[in-house]
Amino acid sequence: MSEASAVAFECEVRLKIGELEVPQTAKTRLRRPNLARLELSGAGQDALIVLDGTSTWHYAKASKEYFQSKQRSTTKLEQYGAGPAASLFFEKGARSLLPYLSDATVTTERLGDEECSVVTWKVGAEVTSLWIHGDRLRRYRTTRSIAQQKFEQTFKYGKFDLAPTLADDSFTFTPPKGAHPIEQGGDDELLALGAPAPDFSATAPDGKVRKLSESSGRPVLLTFWFYG
Amino acid sequence: MHQELAKRGVEMLAVDFGDKAETIAAYFKKERFEMTPLQQEGDEVSRAFGVQTYPTNYLLDASGKVAWRMVGFDEAAFRAVLDKVAPER
After folding, report:
1. pTM for the model
2. For labeling, which of A28, A42, A132, A207 is most exposed (least CB within 10 Å)?
3. According to the model, what pLDDT value does residue A12 have?
4. What are the residues whose beta carbons fall under 8 Å from the beta carbon of A208, sequence distance 6 or more?
5. Domain containing A152: what range?
6. From the list A205, A210, A224, which residue is nearest B51 (CB)?
């Protein structure tokens, strides 16, 4: 897969939360270094996602709404439905897994008529398995339990086309007729890696004012959240 | 997770957006988090860190530089960086 300049594949994505199942199909086309087109269907959430190199476009078919956000990386494709294949294709993401692979177990399992190696590892409460046949990723599953609720996400990959015929406009987004843009607040302009964090003051429940700089010399996990 | 981070010497600050102080205090008391909840003025801290989606997490190294950040939380990615920033003691 690493030799090809482009790849096309279909993937069945199934999210299971407890007894609830959300099945979707993702038709994905990727081209180095950073272009992508994903057509998602199923679960009443048909959508088109295009990464054109500078922007990420989301179009929801049912509501005919679309929004544009700045394209920062290809890593979000993993959440959008391309799964780890996108990260591996763009050569990102695999490195962070390496420390865990030494603890992985490898078994074999037959998927259809393919004999697969199944690599499984655990990080905290999350169990991940990869099914590999030859040099191809066939399936990916990650399972975690949060507050006794079980979340399971499975990606089943179809054949990878390493020399796909791609239309000229595969990686450009043209709003379909009748589509309208919406404001979108989710495109965060997070600080760059390595950037010094700005100091700030905020109030603890006991009324004391805390400054970030009081923690200097210690690593800090900073969580932005709200209860609602 | 929080206890493990505390053992590794990681300070945990939870910057709230928009909740009342009582809500925050009650929630943290109930959940017994190791984190220190903090209330910001409006959204000034969120803005300084470019945060528009919640939760968003930053891991700062001991010199106060951004070692990792993420909208949401991916434990595997976090742990890979954590071992460098705050190795087990």
Report:
1. 0.59
2. A207
3. 94
4. none
5. 6-181
6. A224
Q: What's the residue count for chain B?
A: 89
Q: pLDDT per residue over B41-70, tens digit each?
A: 888 899 899 888 888 999 999 999 999 998
Question: Comparing A79 with B37, which gets the higher pLDDT?
Answer: B37
Q: How many contacts, defined by CB atoms under 8 Å, are there between A and B?
A: 179
Query: In angstroms, rounded to a whole number, what is the distance separating the alpha carbons of residues A130 and A117?
Result: 8
- Inter-chain residue contact A219 with B71, CB threshold 8 Å: no
Does residue A127 form part of some domain? Answer: yes
Give the whole-angstrom CA distance, residue A85 versus residue A94: 10
Mean residue pLDDT of chain B comes to 86
Inter-chain contact B12–A223, Cβ cutoff 8 Å? yes
Of A128, A190, A226, the CB nearest to B16: A226
Q: Does A183 touch chain B (CB under 8 A)?
A: no
Among all residues of chain B, which has the CA nearest to that of A206? B25
Q: Which of B13, B24, B85 lies at the smallest CB-CB distance from A227? A: B24
- Enter the DSSP assignment of B64: S
Contact A225 B14 (CB under 8 A): yes
Distance CA B5, CA A16 (A): 29
Instruction: Say whether A205 and B21 touch across the interface (CB within 8 A).
Output: yes
Classify residue A215: in a domain, yes or no.
no
ipTM score of the complex? 0.94
A147 pLDDT tier (thresholds 50, 70, 90): low
Contact B38 A99 (CB under 8 A): no
Residue A70 lies in a domain: yes
Distances (CA, A) of B16 to A95, A100, B38: 33, 33, 6
